[in-house]
Specification:
This protein is an alpha/beta fold. It has two domains: 7-87, 2-Layer Sandwich (Alpha-Beta Plaits), CATH 3.30.70; 126-285, Vaccinia Virus protein VP39 (Rossmann fold), CATH 3.40.50.150. It has helices spanning 19-27, 52-62, 79-89, 131-141, 159-166, 180-192, 209-213, 226-239, 255-264, and strands at residues 7-12, 33-37, 40-46, 73-77, 93-94, 99-102, 115-118, 150-153, 173-177, 198-202, 219-223, 244-251, 267-275, 278-285. The termini are far apart. Keywords: Cytoplasm, Methyltransferase, Ribonucleoprotein, Ribosomal protein, S-adenosyl-L-methionine, Transferase. Methylates ribosomal protein L11.
Length: 286
């Protein structure tokens, strides 16, 4: 139905100690939405993207788990059911002494000096529950963002653009996603946080990037995945050579690949931080 966002729920019977690896493997297949339970991992993919080819790719990815590919069951999940279940399970999450992410309808009072961001995700990526979001926010805390002209690629919930505003950025921000649901959700979250002058667009990270980079962006935020980073970093280097790039969505064991890519593009990793199996890297021209 037009305007609806149905999903397929994948139920993967694995123990909690395998969740991080499974999430990492599935993230490489473009799956971004997960819910962790005691004896299984739930993953969600838009119904329109589910196919026999996608199912085969998922099974091949999970074959890297200890014990091989688990038995995967699938269930159709209607839009209204997903929103209710997801939002019911979200809890406030403290990113650092500087940031806490809460839902609109509740959460503890922030500590003195702590920045509170209200996020109601509705299936968009960027709730604070994933290590890559937390890594990006922790990196941003230590950057002087006041005068940066920021582009947020794959904005999801809009959390990074909102955080930039709350950290004192005053320049226009372009935040975009290739998911209409994410773009709609980002607009809602920006309004809830009174974070003005953030332009949300429905754009493709690869097809629409070069022309937009010509507008003089000085800081590029890209919490996406390795395959997309591999394709867009050369485009950023060619069209915005002076821009700083903050990356995440890269697994720790892919750091050698990243170093080779940066060397080829005459860039350097200024600061890299880690959480679990993920890293975030601040990149500048060498």
């Amino acid at each position: 139905m037009p305007g609806t966002h149905h999903h397929i729920e994948l139920s993967i019977p694995i123990t909690s100690d395998q969740h991080e690896l499974a999430i990492a493997l599935l993230s490489m297949e473009g799956i971004e939405y997960f819910q962790e339970e005691d004896r299984k991992l739930l993953a969600y993919i838009p119904e329109a993207e589910w196919s026999e080819e996608k199912e085969t790719a998922v099974k091949l990815a999970l074959a890297a788990l200890p014990g091989g590919t688990p038995t995967i069951s699938t269930e159709f999940m209607a839009d209204r059911n997903w929103n209710a279940e997801w939002e019911a399970n979200l809890k406030p999450i403290e990113i650092s002494d500087r940031f806490i992410i809460v839902q609109k309808k509740g959460g503890p009072a922030p500590k003195p000096g702590q920045i509170q961001i209200e996020i109601n995700p509705k299936m968009s990526f960027g709730t604070g529950y994933h290590a890559t979001t937390r890594l990006m926010l922790r990196q941003m805390e230590d950057l002087g963002l006041e005068n940066e002209k920021i582009m947020d690629i794959g904005t999801g919930t809009g959390v990074l653009a909102i955080a930039a505003r709350k950290l004192g950025n005053t320049s226009p921000i372009l935040a975009f996603d290739n998911s209409s649901w994410a773009a709609e959700n980002a607009v809602e979250n920006i309004a809830e946080n009174n974070a003005g002058d953030i332009q949300i667009e429905l754009l493709d990270a690869e097809e629409d990037l070069a022309v937009n980079l010509r507008d003089g962006y000085t800081l590029i935020l890209a919490n996406i995945n390795k395959n997309v980073i591999d394709r867009i970093l050369p485009v950023i280097r060619a069209n915005a050579p002076g821009a700083t790039v903050l990356l995440s969505g890269i697994l720790v064991y892919d750091e050698p690949w990243l170093k080779k890519l940066l060397k080829r593009l005459d860039c350097e990793a200024v600061r890299t931080i880690y959480e679990d199996e993920w890293l975030s890297c601040l990149v500048r021209t060498a």
